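User: Could you check the structure of this?
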Amino acid sequence: MSRLRFLLRYRLVIGLGSLALVLTITYQFLSDPIFSDENILVVSDEYNWPKDYIFMMLPDGSRQRRLERGFDPACSPDGHRIAFAAPDDSLLPNSKRYDQIFIMDVNRSNVKQLTSDSSPKFTPAWSPDGQFLAFGSYSESVPRTPIWHIDIIDLRDMTITRPIDQNWSVSYPAWSPDGKQIVVSAFNHRTEASGLYLTDTKGNYMTRLTYDFDRQPDWSPDGKYIAYLYRPAGVEMSSTIRVIGSDGSNPIDIVPAKYQPRSLKWSPDGKRIVFVGHTESGDGVFVINSDGSGLTPITQLGKKVLGAEGGVIPLLLKVFYEKVTWCMVKYIKPRRSTL
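Assistant: Sure, the predicted structure tokens are below.
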């Protein structure tokens, strides 16, 4: 009888120990979002409609996991941090919500707010050395003319500069790989000229590259090309993804307008472009080779879900995707204390 009790007690201890081990591994698996060095970040309302959240997934679209509420994510060059825009709920004068710039570690810890004022902020972009962030800022001039600015924050001392004067509305900054230039989407209020322009970090010049309603430029990793959303000025049509030389030469459309692309990013190896698009089946994230071949959806198009993370509840709502970017994660999980 005593032997039977011992065996039962032994099995109970083993069972509880195994359950604890499984629960511990499951918790670590769910709490640590890093599965691979190469990842894609995308903004989606997939699990928390109508709020936008930043998700991380593998380049094939698998293992989607939620990081943080926000939008416009940008991964730091060293792969350790993510900059993003998100609402600052403490700034609510006149019932307005002002989005600000934040950063966090890639494992979604150490969230820090960088800006805090009464003008919306968006589209942060890291300098190649990781010391600066350029981002868009919105304001209204007199008489209530909307102005988009580019501000640059020095992350070493948190000083902010505004290199381009009030004659321009500028947005969507993207740094050249050598860190010497920034390409922006711009509109000149005096000449009414629009397109993509090159400038330096001091705003000493504005060199025009394109002549249409062009936005969201992104420099190829080798600095030879710029991809962007192209739409002819004055033409009611969806954008296409166009690639030009970094001097504005040799334009080539690689994604047709029927896919309605609205966000893009070069892969770290410069061979592919990831973008958010739309088909008759719904929104999706796609990857395409830089020459326009091999277009492949990497998310399930038009999946209808709402609810807790990981839950699927069919509804008459479709997943909406926004900003997408590539992220080479260099994250080392902290060692546990031995004390």
